[in-house]
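Progress report, Aim 2. The chain analyzed during this reporting quarter is listed below.
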Amino acid sequence: MILMFVPLKGYFQALFGSIEILLYSMHVKNQVLPAAEEAKSIWTNKLGFRKMTDERYLEYSRDFTLTEFNGTSMLEKEVQQTSYEL
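Predicted structure tokens for the chain:
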């Protein structure tokens, strides 16, 4: 796997990009996570997540065990092939 540092991206964004490459190579379709209200804007504005609808939550909960915490919102993001090389 070849990982190239992309200028103007923070270390966390670079790390998260590497994780997305790994998830894509494993044929993962979606990422789901609980986000604290204080951090929600980072996940949505910087990393491309969106708030999960109640319908989507029910779909996921039929097939997977989801962990939620008080004061969090469930977010999701489709895993896509990135511009990084594998």
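The chain has a mean pLDDT of 85. The CA atoms of residues 39 and 45 lie 10 Å apart. These observations will guide the mutagenesis work planned for the next reporting period.
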